């Protein structure tokens, strides 16, 4: 079943400080309110050309009474959460804010929640900087994340690429369905098999533009003339499919095999 992310439209009340929510972990391995570096955390990204000190800024979940104030005791920007801590988000960089035992700020693991960033407590006139709402249950260790950092769309951690590879025996052909691929820009496929001990194959590339899934059928296991006459390969035992999905973050390879 496909799972959907819902983003609440709160942009009319937001002010652009250059700093945005970039990633958060609602359901960490272990105790949600464990001491840092365990437990829940939220990462901020600075899109501006200058460092930004966010000391005193506040994270909220859905409730205004659930307050997590950002200070040196719960924040880190250098990958060393055991030092004295930092509250500066470097230009083009990240600050991680840990829940670190806080008793009221809590991101729901089962029914969805909202993460909100303010430049001061709401009770003191703080202004909404950024927010994100999710409405799905989240598996342990899965984070929501912008891709690319700072400016990209939020990605659902539960949707991972998957491919179904199947025979179309009435056509002496195969097909595949790839899903969970909306974050990729290119799909390369290679179908290979042996026919009477001779290597045969079909290769191609599909340029993607945000599709959640695609289906490609009628890869003929043989050769067909322009007039429509086909000669099908025989002596096939196993057919192998290799798919390589590409985006700016790298590549993911999916492989399947079916018996003919």
UniProtKB/TrEMBL annotation:
Q: Tell me where in this chain the LTD domain is found.
A: 3-136
State the Pfam families in the record: LTD
Q: What Gene3D superfamilies would the database entry show?
A: Lamin Tail domain
TM stretches of this protein: none
InterPro entries the record matches: Lamin_tail_dom (IPR001322), Lamin_tail_dom_sf (IPR036415)
- Superkingdom of this protein's organism: Bacteria
Q: What's the protein name?
A: LTD domain-containing protein
Q: What is the lineage of its organism?
A: Bacteria, Candidatus Shapironibacteriota
């Amino acid at each position: 079943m496909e799972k959907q992310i819902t983003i609440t439209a709160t942009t009319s009340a937001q002010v652009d400080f250059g700093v945005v929510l970039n990633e958060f972990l609602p359901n960490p391995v272990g105790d949600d309110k464990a001491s840092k570096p365990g437990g829940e955390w939220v990462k901020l990204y600075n899109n501006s050309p200058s460092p930004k000190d966010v000391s005193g800024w506040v994270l909220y979940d859905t409730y205004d009474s659930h307050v997590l104030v950002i200070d040196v005791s719960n924040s880190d920007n250098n990958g060393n959460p055991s030092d004295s801590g930092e509250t500066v988000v470097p230009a083009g960089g990240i600050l991680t804010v840990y829940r670190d035992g806080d008793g009221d700020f809590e991101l729901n693991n089962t029914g969805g929640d909202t993460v909100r960033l303010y430049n001061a407590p709401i009770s003191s006139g703080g202004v909404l900087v950024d927010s994100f709402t999710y409405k799905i249950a989240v598996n342990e260790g899965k984070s929501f994340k912008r891709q690319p950092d700072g400016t990209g769309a939020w990605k659902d951690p539960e949707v991972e690429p998957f491919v179904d590879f199947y025979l179309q025996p009435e056509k002496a052909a195969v097909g595949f369905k790839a899903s969970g691929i909306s974050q990729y820009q290119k799909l390369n496929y290679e179908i290979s098999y042996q026919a009477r001990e001779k290597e045969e194959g079909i290769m191609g590339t599909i340029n993607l533009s945000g599709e959640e899934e695609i289906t490609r059928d009628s890869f003929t296991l043989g050769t067909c003339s322009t007039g429509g006459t086909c000669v099908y390969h025989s002596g096939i035992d196993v057919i192998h499919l290799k798919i390589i999905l590409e985006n700016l973050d790298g590549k993911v390879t999916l492989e399947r095999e079916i018996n003919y």
